[in-house]
Structures are given as C-alpha cells and as structure tokens.
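Quick illustration for those who missed Monday's session on complexes.
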Amino acid sequence: MPALHHTPVAGLSALLTAGELSSVELTRHFLDRIERYQGELNAFITVTPERALADAAAADARRRQGDASPLTGIPYACKDIFCTRDVLTTCGSKMLANFVAPYESTATARIADAGAVLLGKTNMDEFAMGSSNESSFFGSVGNPWNIDCVPGGSSGGSAVAVAAGLAPLATGTDTGGSIRQPAAFCGISGLKPTYGRVSRYGMIAFASSLDQGGPMARGVEDLGLLLGVMAGFDAADSTSSDANEDWLAGLREGRMPAAEPLTIGLPKEYFDGLGAAAASLDEARRVFEARGYRVREVSLPHTEPAIPVYYVLAGAEASANLSRYDGIRFGHRADNPHDVRDLYVRSRSEGFGAEVKRRILTGTYALSVGYYEAYYQKAQRVRRLIQQDFLRAFGDVDILLTPTAPGAAFRRGELTRDPVAMYQQDVYTTPVSLAGLPALSLPCGFVDGLPLGMQLIAPHFREDRLLAAGLDFQHDTDWHHRHPEGWQ
Ligand code: GLN
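Prediction with glutamine bound:
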C-alpha cells in the first residue's frame, strides 16, 4: 500500500467511499506536507487551510448522502492564474499581488462543483511567461528531484506540488508548453487540451489564441478524472467548443476511453540532434510496438520557425491583454503620481517584471505601423503552414510521439541571462500550441537522476486517443510511479 500522498486518485476515492478515511483527514495530510516542505520548494503562493478543511467537511457530508463523484473530497492545487472568488489570484506578479477576483473561473467552479478541495494557489512564472518559474514575483521554485534545478514553467508550482506529494492533482495552463514542460521536468503527467476544450473564462489572459487550461497529475487516469471535470462547452468563452464531447461524461465517472493499437508518427525534425533523451524515446517506441502499435516516420517541415512565430504572436497578444494593468482599471498603483501619465508609467514600471516588459515591448513593436505586415501578419501566415503540416501528418498516422523538451531540467540561474536560450526550451511544444492541438506529456526515463518527458500529440478534440495511448504506455512502464527522495 503506497503512502497516501503517492496513492492514485481512484485509490483515494475508494478509501473515502469505504469510509476508511475522511476527506478532512486526507486534506490535513496534504496541508501538513505543504507546511513541512513549502519553505524549501516554494510551490505555493497562497495556501488556504481553513477553506480546505471546511470544503473537506462538506465533501464528507456529501459522500455520506451518497451524492459523490470520484473527485468529491479529493484535494487539489490550483495554478494562480485561475480566478478564485475570495482567494488571492496573483498570476505570479507584483501587479496583482493584492488581487482578489470578484468571480470564479469556469474551470475552478466546475472542479468545486465536483467536490474537490482547494489546497491553495501554486507558484508560476509571471503572467505565465517563462519556462523555469524564475520570473515569478514570489520567488523561484525548487525541483524536488534536485533542488538546484528549475521545475520548468510556467506551471512550475503545480508540477512540483504533484511531484513532491503535496497534492494528488493540480491545474495548469499551457500557452506554448507550460503544462507539458514542467510535467516533463518534474516526472509527472500533464495534458494540454485542444484549444477550445477547457473554458478560458476567469483564466487570466496571456495570449488568447493559444491559452488553454488543463490537468496535471502523476498518472494518466488521474488526468482523465480532472480533465472530465474541467472540460466542456462554456457559453462564457467565445472560443469554447462542444466538439466530440460524448466521452467526457464517462471520464468524470472514472471510465477511460477504450484503447486499440494506433499508428504513431515520429516527426523526423523533432529527433534531429536530440541528445540524452533519444534513448528513452526509442525505448518508449518499443513499448508501444510491443503492444501492437505501428510506428512510422513523418515530416513536419515548418518546425524550425515555430519559436519565432510563437514569440511574435504570443508577445503581440500579450501586449494587448496586459494593457488593462494600468493602475486604474486593474493592478498595482504607484504612490503620489503627479499626473496621469506618471501614474501609468510608474504603475506599469513598478508592477511588471523584466520578462513581462520584454514581451510587451516586442509584442507592441510587432503590431506597430510599418512592422505589422513584416512581423505579425507574416507570423500568422507561417502559423497556418505549421498547422497544415500537422493536419497532413494526421492523414497518415493517428498520433505523434516526440520529446517534450530538448533535455531534462536545467540549473536554476543557468538561462536567466539569455532569454533566447530560454525560449529554445519550447521547440517541441510551441508548434503544437500554434496548431491548437491536444498533447500529453508523460514521464519516460531519467538522465543524471532527472526525469525526462515524452509528448504524444493528437488531432483536434481527440484527447481520448491521448488518454488511451498514455494508459497503454503507463500499463507497461513504471516511470510515473517513481518519486523523488527526501520528501517522505
Ligand atoms: N515558455 C513559453 C513562454 O514563455 C510558454 C509559456 C506558457 O505556455 N504559458 O511563453
């Protein structure tokens, strides 16, 4: 019997149903662990013990009345980008260091309706801009596998909370890799749904044509439970979709999509020059082949421009979205301004950190008169070509298998002075985001004691394929059962 904090959600749910454990006891267990390890890991920005214990007591009552779903009474950690009524939502920024949203995001409202218990809000890169969690105003986060390494970003706090057993489940968001890359760096599983699958209502906007919320957990079954609750059409988000939703209801009851051996494509551009991760990816491919999956090479010729295209478009959208933080409508307000211009300039200069400023400046530049066609419009065109590459590949194969990131977690401070090197981390995740596709990162090995992740990519609205294939893989491997030592 594994420790409670290593037990999959279905197992915890069974203990709650059998009355062998109450949600209050389970919640205390996780709150105690957070208290013990928060100092070293800094995975949380806000911890909500009183509310958690009250929600847990309510969940216990609900279970006694026979009105429970598998998530009722299960604690979870929430990225601090989802607005939560009465609980601070900072988005990792000084700009929102005192912001208490007057409303609840759709995703967190649905999780609360299912009866899950909010433990707290997790640390993240400022406004979700980063790949290492080092741009957070609230300090960087330690990777539990090696405290001197980054956990990845921007959903680094969520990944660490799950990896160190401070929460069985967490929410993340992914604009260009922010669920998948930290999941890979921390040895857990993470799913970025199809654009439009999870409502963006109440999720603080970074780049609205790319942002997507999704689940993070140790294993694929747990991802399915949380995805089932988070996903689904929402009239409050104009880009929300109800495509291929039938199987989501099953997920909420713990029924995973049926698996059958699929054809996997290996995009050759993603394996060129791949270092230490290559052997693990090869091993993963053999696991699938042994289960009857077919594997063939495919080509995604427009892979190389994905990073510049992503950083032009995401920056442009961010520059527009972040204009609301001006000290008047939203956000930090500078003291004693001598006029309105001084108020804007100082509020924004004081409230935003260096990486966010860099994105606003480059994004504004790409949208400005005389440069709009050369940068923004051209990037939009190349985005279309990137998407077409994927659609063509999916004419021949059912899913794609790639690395999640170029390597394992890097050292804290190693890339902070070189933004372009930091951006290179996103080479395998941004093309998928630009195409709006769903993708799953799963642990698939280790290098120098640090976990490695692989990415499965599916056609639009086919998360069912990802879950089925991921489940097959985790049936025959135990990477997702490995835990970092020292967080007992
Ligand atoms: N690392 C990427 C960036 O900095 C992706 C971030 C994200 O997905 N939110 O923009």
